[in-house]
Amino acid sequence: MYEKTFPNKRFKLTLLFLKKHIKTSESILDLGVKNPMSEIMIANGYEVSNTNGEDLDEDRSAIENSNADVITAFEIFEHLLSPYEVLKSIKANKIIVSVPLRLWFASAYKSETDERDRHYHEFEDWQLDWLLEKTGWKIKDTAKWTNPVNKIGLRPFLRRFINRYYIVYAERV
Known about the structure:
The protein is of the alpha/beta class. It has a single domain, classed as Vaccinia Virus protein VP39 (Rossmann fold). Helix content is 28%, strand content 23%. It has six helices and six strands. Strands 2-1-3-4-6-5 form a six-stranded mixed beta sheet, with helices on both faces. Strand 3, helix 4 and strand 4 form a beta-alpha-beta unit. It starts with 7 loop residues before the first helix and ends with a strand.
């Protein structure tokens, strides 16, 4: 399924990372509304529920009331003002988080039409690591990958070589 879904490289690598660390018998709460990645997880045998689009900075009840074994947050934390509070509210003992990395040659993403679709944070890898460690998580594995685009120019050229995504598997200390 993910082979035909844009951005397929990100979905493929995210799924491989998930399979490396999480068994299909473990229940998952995926932060954010149902999305292509949550559908890919379900198609691969995972039991996945999602939050309902509430502002997680203001309302963490779905996280606090969840009995899921694992929390996934794929490209969610960059949209939050306080990912610290979200991470502290998680009861699960395992988490997989991915974020777009801050790129020196591109501004933070800002949708002109959807005020919820903006990046408040774009992390460097050490910043996400520090945030996870400070909120009680021990990092067990990480990976990075590029996000090439089929356009002409300096920035598209740089995207072929500079990592854009960072993913972390961590367990509660």
